[in-house]
Amino acid sequence: AAALDGELMSVPGFSLEQLMELAGLAIAEAVYIVVEEKRAADSKPKILIICGPGNNGGDGLVAARHLVMFGYSCDIVYPKQSSKQHFINLVQQCEDVGIPILTEMPAETKDYAAIVDAIFGFSFKGEPREPFATILQQIKHAQPSPTGLQTISVDVPSGWNVDEGDVAKTGFTPDV
After folding, report:
1. Where are the beta strands (DSSP E) in 10-62?
2. Within the chain, how many helices (H) and strands (E) appear?
3. Cis peptide before 174 (omega within 30 of 0)
4. Torsion of the alpha carbons at 64, 67, 72 and 78, rounded to the nearest 10
5. Is the bond preceding 12 in cis, omega lying within 30 degrees of 0?
6. How far is CA 29 from CA 25, 62, 129, 160, in A?
7. What is the model's pTM?
8. Are 72 and 46 in contact (CB under 8 A)?
9. Which of 9, 27, 59, 144 is 20 to 30 A removed from 176 (C-alpha atoms)?
């Protein structure tokens, strides 16, 4: 995955912003496929997107914006916001389309059709630190859901080593 990113950004390649837009759109399309088959004809599904401070979180911010354009309602949990201008712009774009930006997990997840894990990507190493260790446990405890809530991870489940799996033993296994 790292080699593919490098190849895509090599001259004359894609910029990080372009790749983030493409990834965010792909995430939104995947959420649409997973949620739409269970959607009632008159409902507006609500999606919770948890974003980390890196590029995976940026992908989640972009996905939220696209999901709103698809007719979904989104909330974003973004406890450690990046100070990089591109991320500041992405947050502003989300706020401009009415997406609430939360700093912690909501007390209840039963009203959501899906939770998107956009916390850590394929370059994550070690064990998740706070507040993300607790958030991952909260996501894990929302599964399995009697309401049909789906958990969807971007790239790789957060906290997992991309090559070795759940070496930190988080026990979090997404549905998608």
Report:
1. 46-51
2. 5, 5
3. no
4. -10
5. yes
6. 6, 12, 30, 23
7. 0.90
8. yes
9. 9
